[in-house]
Design brief:
The protein is mostly helical and 164 residues long. It has one domain. It contains 5 helices and no strands. Helix 2 packs antiparallel against helix 3, helix 2 packs parallel to helix 4 and helix 4 runs antiparallel to helix 5. It is flat. 12% of the residues are buried.
Length: 164
C-alpha cells in the first residue's frame, strides 16, 4: 500500500516546482510593475521620495519573499491532498492558472504606463497570458459547474411538463 501511495504522489512535486518557479516570476513581474509605477508617479526627481521608494522596494521584497514561502508550503499540501483524492490535475490547473492571471494583470499594468517600449509585443504577451490563465482556471472547474439542468422527460403527448 505504501508504494502505491508513493507512485500517486510522484507527479505532485514537478507541478509543485513549476508553481514555485511561476511564483518567483510573478514576484519579479510585480516588483517591476511597482518600481515602474513608483518611478513614474511618485519619485519624479525628488531625492527624499527616491529613498522612500527604495525602502518600499526592499521591504516589499522581504514581505513578498515571505508570502512566496507560505504560498509554496501551502501549495505543496494542497497538491498532495489533491493527488490523494484524484484531483491533482484540476488543483494544479487552478493554482497555475491563478498565478498566470496575476502575471497577466501585472503585465497589462505595465503596458498602460507611459514608458517607451515596442508598440504591440507587450500587449500580445499579456493577452496570451490572459488566455492561458483563463483556460487553466476553466479547466480546473468542478465537473458540474457549467452543466445544463437535466431536462424533464416528455409525456405521452410529446410535451414536457413544467417543473413545480
Amino acid at each position: 500500500m505504501g508504494e502505491r501511495r508513493w507512485t500517486r504522489l510522484l507527479p505532485v512535486y514537478p507541478l509543485w516546482l513549476l508553481a514555485g518557479a511561476l511564483g518567483l516570476w510573478l514576484l519579479a513581474t510585480l516588483r517591476h510593475a511597482l518600481l515602474t509605477a513608483l518611478a513614474l508617479y511618485y519619485v519624479r526627481g525628488s531625492a527624499a521620495r527616491g529613498w522612500r521608494a527604495g525602502f518600499c522596494d526592499k521591504a516589499g521584497i522581504v514581505a513578498a519573499g515571505l508570502a512566496w514561502l507560505v504560498f509554496v508550503m501551502a501549495t505543496e499540501s494542497y497538491l498532495r491532498e489533491g493527488a490523494e483524492k484524484g484531483l491533482l490535475l484540476r488543483r494544479s490547473a487552478l493554482v497555475l492558472g491563478l498565478e498566470v492571471l496575476v502575471i497577466a494583470v501585472a503585465h497589462l499594468s505595465l503596458c498602460l504606463m507611459p514608458v517607451p517600449r515596442p508598440a504591440w509585443l507587450p500587449w500580445i504577451a499579456a493577452g496570451l497570458e490572459l488566455v492561458i490563465g483563463l483556460a487553466l482556471v476553466i479547466l480546473s472547474r468542478p465537473a458540474g459547474l457549467f452543466r445544463q439542468r437535466p431536462r424533464l422527460p416528455r409525456d405521452a403527448a410529446g410535451t414536457r411538463p413544467h417543473s413545480p
